[in-house]
Amino acid sequence: MSSVGLIIGLISGAGATVVAQRFLIKSKSQEIIKNAEIEAENIRKERALQSKEKFLKQKEEHEESIREREKRMQSNEDRYRAKEKTLNQKLEDLNRKEKEAEKSKADYEVKASALELRQQELDKIQQKQVAELSKISNLSPEDAKKDLMTALTDEARTAAMSTIKEITEEAKLNANKEARKIVIQSIQRVATEQAIENAVSVFNIESDEVKGRIIGREGRNIRALEAATGVEIIVDDTPEAIILSCFDPVRREIARLSLHQLVSDGRIHPARIEEVVAKTRKQLDEEIAETGRRTCIDLGIHGLHPELMRMVGRMKYRSSYGQNLLQHSREVANLCAIMAAELGLNVKLAKRAGLLHDIGKVPDEEPELPHAILGMKIAEKFGEKGDVLNAIGAHHDEIEMTTLISPIVQVCDAISGARPGARREIVEAYIKRIKELENLALSYEGVSSAYAIQAGRELRVLVEAEKVSDQRSEELSFTISQRIQTEMTYPGQVKVTVIREKRSVNYAK
Prior knowledge:
It is built from 14 helices and eight strands.
């Protein structure tokens, strides 16, 4: 019983505990539900408040946009009203001007009608007067007009002839005076140095020991140098100096520059000599081109063909009757420019013609044409204008002058050459004789080059070994000497030396 009662008591206690737990859970559930309801209500209120605030904000923005739109519409309306007012005012002005124009037109038509009536009246009066004059003079209007025109023409012709005669006489009186004045002013405004060419250059050395190296063993170096340059090299007792003798300034300059390079380098032997001479000849060609370019720049002459520019540079090493050709041409160009300016002609064209007038003296080959005609053909080949061509060709009266620049170039050429000491006839004749000697030798087949040395007393002829034999060399020497004796005039005697040299060259690889 006790066990059973114990069990029943335990069960009763357990039931009470469960009931108590259920009550507790129910109480907590109700509390949670109540809290949830309160929280939900708070959330609802908060959401409602947020929605209301958002609505109010959107409403305020909408009202602001409406106010802005109304403001813009009002501004546009005001602007349109102002434009409408301006247009109305312009329209009123236009209507007023149109009325004024119509009124002016009406006034003009009235005045035109009155003027037409007045003109008709004047025509009637004039016809009446003409009829009366015709009746009095027994001449028709056409005859009277013709007689009046004839009388006026004769009177004008007489007055014109008298005026022309007076002008011609005055021009004759003043022409010579003005011409002399222009020539004197042109000469006074040009100061060109006088340069007289000779046939000798002096090469200065530091010591006489260099002379032995230049001569070389058994004279082979000096012979190679003379053969390569065509210049006679005179090594004598003159202290610290070697004389280079040749009529051609270009050859002398090549020999001088080659000697300078050989002495500075220290290596002097035949192969090196030929190499340096070839290189120096090329450098001199470049220097000639630069001289021509610099001359054109100094004179302000533009657009000259490069070949003509190079020929202008070569004038530096040419002479005319002992006068340096480049200096002479520069002087003529400046004189032409001054005279053209005095006479109101084209200064640049005159200066261009003055510089190029002796261009026919520069080419190496010398055809039978006079240098003026040859220069004109050369300038024409390289695109010079007709005025320049005529001035070049006519400056020695070989062709007829057709432009005003031609007599200017002729006069300036005479002025430049006529100054005391500017030219020497003897030097020109000497150089011409030396060139004829060389050209005579070059006319034979197999001759590669010919050099007149010792002032024309010796002619060295270099022949090609493949074309000329030893026997032919002897015959050639005799033939040339006979031709010189029979065809040329020369002082003393001329030694003809024919040189035939055979070279064999191979390379070890």
